[in-house]
Write a sequence for this structure.
């Protein structure tokens, strides 16, 4: 278990501000935030590479705030894997064993086998591929049986195909070794797939902690909402509220949304572009919101097409290439923008 | 990325002019030295052999190498830790400290000698009180001190650059694997900067051996190579001093070549 109490630290352009967080034993915990939010700094603080300006860090109940990194008893894997370039793969893995006075060739063989690097043991680390380097780095970190594994953007330096197998590998390691994992990323998809719980950090502040569902469906803050993919934001006022159904007036348009906020409140309504349906005709029974508009811009993104529509306000929609072709979507075309009331996430 | 210049390279006037200037620079150094060396060997081989058999000459050259070696050891002892602190930490006045470390390179060496004499001379700030225990003026410690003063910046700076080239994340990784700082330094940072430090040591030693101005002011005797050359030049002229000069340069050059050859395999430590 990692407990972080009111942790503050300024370093270069980064600053963490009174951050408190509790990570349970055995949890796969992802710290998600934009680049420059101070995520790596947080991880380095937990590892003991920096000391905080104020606040406390407890690992399994023990205050490690002022202990040197070697006494934090955790494994740390950097984004660039930080393999020692003057040692063979084997020597790299043995380094931690040497430091912790563990003499066990079987352990080394076992971890090498687990991570499929047995054939690489005599190689020079910088001559390996990114995926291989990562597996070596994990082997080096895990061979001494730590309870906690800290991962700094573990997938971002890998190509998409290697990423997938690395994700699987990390999940397996987490499960089999019953590790507490703290994983940093700026990639929402990665966080969503891997995390038991997610913490969102922006500008050194903790914005929200919750399960992936809570984070991605019910962001508590407008900045979190737009970071987790609610690209469309409408600001307005609740004009009526009735049994969980809100009517919101936002500029020139009125939309229906589900939520529980009293009438008269100033609110922001968020809508994911993928939850918008485009149609040539207005009526579709189950969909409460249908706005008339005109396509202003179209971007081809491979299988998907991003469309910007002016319907009194500007909305972004993400549709399949097929439906874009069927409806002959191009700038200037009139369309109906439709979305469910339940797709609209309302925040005060 | 380096580009190999070949006949088929596109003609670029700038590259042509710069290459020509490189040739001028090279010839200036090479011709000056080789003219002296080969002139000596072809005109007066006998003089060279006599110099090599002369006890005063041999011991002065040996003293140069030995004192330079001691100065380099001291420079390592002081410069490596200093370089580490300068590479890894920021502190108020750091730029001032770095500038002052560079000063010995830019002051005229006779000025350095005078300064050293006022501190380490027999009535100096430190030399005075230590008079009964260690003598600096006209003694080996004075020579070593003068050599150290003018050559220390080379070692401190190259050690600093060496440590800077080692990603602190490697040190962090080592520490989270259970290494206390001193082990992370000894097993990771130091080996990875070894090449920089070795090159710095060679530069330091070379600078120490070539020092004349600062040494001659604090210790004319015992004579190091350059002092003897100067002494012979003043007393007997060029023909008497040249063989010693040639001998000194041949000895030092061969040592540097040996070090370069031996250290060539170290490039594996270079990350760039």
């Amino acid at each position: 278990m990692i407990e972080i109490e009111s942790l503050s630290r300024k370093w270069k352009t980064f600053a963490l501000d009174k951050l408190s967080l509790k990570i349970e034993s055995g949890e796969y915990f992802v710290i998600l935030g934009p680049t420059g939010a101070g995520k790596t700094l947080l991880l380095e603080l937990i590892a003991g590479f920096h000391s905080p300006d104020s606040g406390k860090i407890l690992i399994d109940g023990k205050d490690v705030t002022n202990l040197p990194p070697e006494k934090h008893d955790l494994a740390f894997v950097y984004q660039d894997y930080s393999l020692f370039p003057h040692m063979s793969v084997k020597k790299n893995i043995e380094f931690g064993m040497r430091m912790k006075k563990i003499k066990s060739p079987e352990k080394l063989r076992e971890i090498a086998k687990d991570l499929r690097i047995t054939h690489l043991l005599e190689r020079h680390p910088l001559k390996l591929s990114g995926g291989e380097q990562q597996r070596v780095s994990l082997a080096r970190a895990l061979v001494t049986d730590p309870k906690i594994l800290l991962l700094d953007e573990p997938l971002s330096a890998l190509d998409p195909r290697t990423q997938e197998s690395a994700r699987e590998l990390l999940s397996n390691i987490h499960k089999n070794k019953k590790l507490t994992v703290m994983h940093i990323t700026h990639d929402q998809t990665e966080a969503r797939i891997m995390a038991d719980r997610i913490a969102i950090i922006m500008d050194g502040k903790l914005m929200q902690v919750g399960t992936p569902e809570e984070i991605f469906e019910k962001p508590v803050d407008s900045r979190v909402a737009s970071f987790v993919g609610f690209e469309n934001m409408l600001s307005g006022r609740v004009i009526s509220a009735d049994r969980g159904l809100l009517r919101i007036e936002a500029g020139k348009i009125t939309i229906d949304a589900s939520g529980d906020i009293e009438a008269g409140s100033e609110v922001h309504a968020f809508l994911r572009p993928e939850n918008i349906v485009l149609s040539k005709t207005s009526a579709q029974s189950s969909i409460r919101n249908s706005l008339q508009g005109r396509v202003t811009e179209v971007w081809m993104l491979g299988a998907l097409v991003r469309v910007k529509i002016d319907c009194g306000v500007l909305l972004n929609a993400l549709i399949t290439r097929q439906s874009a072709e069927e409806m002959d979507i191009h700038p200037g075309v009139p369309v109906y923008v439709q979305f469910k009331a339940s797709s609209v996430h309302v925040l005060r | 990325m380096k580009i190999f210049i070949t006949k088929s390279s596109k003609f670029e006037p700038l590259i042509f002019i710069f290459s020509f200037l490189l040739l001028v620079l090279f010839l200036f150094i090479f011709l000056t030295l080789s003219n002296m060396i080969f002139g000596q060997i072809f005109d007066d081989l006998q003089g060279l052999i006599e110099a090599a058999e002369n006890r005063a000459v041999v011991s002065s050259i040996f003293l140069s190498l030995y004192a330079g070696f001691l100065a380099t050891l001291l420079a390592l002892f002081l410069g490596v830790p200093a370089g580490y602190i300068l590479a890894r930490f920021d502190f108020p006045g750091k730029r001032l400290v770095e500038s002052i470390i560079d000063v010995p390179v830019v002051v005229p060496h006779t000025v350095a000698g005078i300064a050293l004499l006022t501190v380490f001379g027999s009535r100096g700030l430190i030399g005075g009180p230590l008079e009964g225990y260690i003598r600096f003026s006209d003694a080996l410690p004075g020579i070593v001190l003068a050599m150290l003063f003018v050559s220390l910046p080379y070692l401190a700076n190259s050690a600093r650059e060496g440590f800077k080239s080692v990603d602190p994340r490697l040190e962090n990784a080592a520490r989270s694997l259970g290494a206390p700082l001193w082990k992370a330094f000894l097993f990771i940072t130091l080996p990875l900067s070894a090449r920089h430090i070795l090159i710095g040591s060679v530069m330091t030693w070379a600078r120490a051996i070539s020092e004349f101005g600062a040494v001659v002011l604090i210790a004319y005797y015992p004579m190091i190579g350059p002092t003897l050359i100067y002494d012979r030049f003043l007393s007997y002229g060029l023909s008497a001093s040249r063989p010693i000069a040639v001998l000194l340069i041949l000895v030092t050059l061969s040592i540097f070549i040996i070090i370069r050859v031996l250290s060539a395999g170290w490039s594996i430590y270079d990350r760039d």
User: Anything to note?
Assistant: The longest helix of chain B spans residues 55-88. Chain B touches chain A at residues 167, 169-170, 172-181, 183, 187-188, 191-192, 268-269, 271 (CB under 8 Å). Chain B has one domain: 59-263.
